[in-house]
# Entry
Amino acid sequence: MKRSSVVSFLVAVFGFGILVPWWKGLDFLDATILLASSAVSLVFVAPMVAASFTREHAGSQILRVVGFVWLIALLILVNGIATVNVRHWLGQLLLPPAGVLVGCLLLNLTGGFFLGLVTAEAALRTGKPASGVRMIRIGFFLALASLVFLARYAPPSLRSRFDDMMTSEGLLRSVFSLCGGLALLSALLWQRVQTLSRR
# Structure
C-alpha cells in the first residue's frame, strides 16, 4: 500500500472519528451525521480496486477492499462515539440506537460492494481500470446535482415528503431500502464480473 494511501486513511479516521465528533459534540450521535461519517470511507473503494486490479483475481480484490473500507468505517464510528463520551461524560455511556449503527455499517458494506463491482466491471469491459473510477466520479456528481436541484426547485409536496424522510425512523427506512437495492444490483454485477473475468 502506498504511503499516500495510508496517510489518507489516517486522515479519514482522525478527521471523522475524532475531530468531527469533538467539534459536533452530542450532535455527532444524530443519525444523519453518523451515516455521513460511516460513508466517508467509500471514497477509497474505486481507487483501491483500480490500483490493484487484475483480471484473474477481481473477485478476491473486491472482497479485500470492501473489508478494509468497512473496517475504516467501523473505526470511525467507534472513535467518534468514544470521543463524544470522553468530551461529554454524563455518568453513563452514550450510544446511538442500535438500528442506526447497523444501518451505518450495512450501508457502508453494500455501498462498498456496489462501487467495487462497478469499478471492476468497467475495468474488465474496457481494459482500463481508471474508467471505473471515472464512472464512479461522474455518478457521484450527477447524484449530487440531482439532490441540489430537487432541494431548490422541488414542489412543496415533494419537499414535505423529503422532510419526513429526514426523521430518524424515515432515514432508517430509506437506508435499509437503499441497502436492499444495492445488494440486488451488486448480485447482478457480481455475475457480470465473474463472466467477464473468465473471458
